[in-house]
Specification:
This protein folds into two domains: 148 residues, Helix-hairpin-Helix base-excision DNA repair enzymes (C-terminal) (Endonuclease Iii, domain 2); 76 residues, Hypothetical protein, domain 2 (Endonuclease III, domain 1, Orthogonal Bundle). 49% of the residues lie in helices and 0% in strands. It has 13 helices and no strands. Helix 6 packs across helix 7 and helix 6 packs across helix 13. It starts with 11 loop residues before the first helix and ends with a helix. 42% of the residues are buried.
Length: 269
């Protein structure tokens, strides 16, 4: 179910944010990676444990202190550095493919040019690349030094927001991410959305678990649609029976390309 709240008169996201800051502390980061680095890091990290993905990224970075040589590398050359992450072969192939496409279109593998683009245009451009869905595109724009005003949501964030009633499903579609962004006050800047992401992720990892959410210890219990309707069960969150994962995104074990949205087609035409 989706919790129906008058967001103009009773904005829920600021209340959620305030309560989570009280539990997990402020989530701010003064230093950000450049957008090219963030893209590579996000592609490696998709559907992988943070610690495993971070270690793989550091290995890759040691062999590529700059990204200029990455488009000329073969997927097999970077695969050993990604061996421990999920879908390592697919990620190696798509990272190289993306690097080559960007270099061929822009002259070099560097996303700094996105600084002058609107969020919609930049999101559309990134999502046309193979293996790039809403989450990787949003993290590239928001988590990086670009600091674009776009909200990024991973599995933990989406699960928590689904239970709160902010989105109709936990799957991470572009529509669901757009709904989350619409709930954010106009006063929220890129850093506020960045902080909100990490607060919700921390909460999803610490309390709002997939199988057995710790509802009795949840600081958001009175705001939670599923808590009000009765504790969420695993079948409510994932009718396929496994962990809820983003769709049409982030490197799945397939060689098919990501569907191009209408916005993407317009941006790249």
């Amino acid at each position: 179910m989706q919790l129906q709240l008058p967001f103009d008169d009773n904005p829920i996201l600021p209340r959620i944010r305030e309560r989570l800051i009280a539990v997990y502390g402020p989530q701010r980061d003064a230093e950000r990676a450049d957008p090219t680095t963030q893209l590579v890091k996000a592609m490696i990290g998709s559907r992988s444990l943070d610690a495993v993905a971070d270690a793989a990224f550091l290995q890759l970075r040691q062999h590529f202190p700059t990204w200029d040589r990455l488009p000329d590398a073969e997927p097999a050359a970077i695969l050993p550095h990604l061996a421990e992450v999920t879908y390592a072969s697919d990620k190696a192939m798509r990272i190289i493919h993306c690097a080559r496409l960007i270099r061929d279109q822009r002259g070099r593998f560097d996303l700094a040019f996105l600084d002058g683009w609107t969020v919609d245009h930049a999101m559309a451009f990134l999502q046309k690349l193979p293996g790039i869905g809403p989450e990787v595109a949003a993290t590239t724009l928001n988590f990086s030094s670009l600091r674009k005003r776009v909200f990024a949501a991973d599995t933990h964030v989406l699960r928590t927001c689904f239970r709160l009633g902010l989105v109709p499903g936990p799957r991470g579609s572009a529509r669901e991410l757009r709904l989350l962004a619409e709930h954010a006050p106009d006063s929220y800047d890129a850093d506020d959305l960045y902080e909100l992401h990490w607060l919700l992720k921390a909460h999803g990892q610490a309390r709002c678990h997939h199988r057995l959410p710790a509802c009795d210890a949840c600081p958001l219990a009175d705001l939670c649609a599923h808590r009000q309707a009765g504790a969420a069960t695993p079948s409510e969150l994932d009718r396929d029976g496994g962990p809820a994962m983003p769709v049409a995104d982030e490197i799945a074990p397939t060689t098919s390309t990501v569907a191009v949205t209408e916005e993407a087609a317009m941006a790249m035409s």
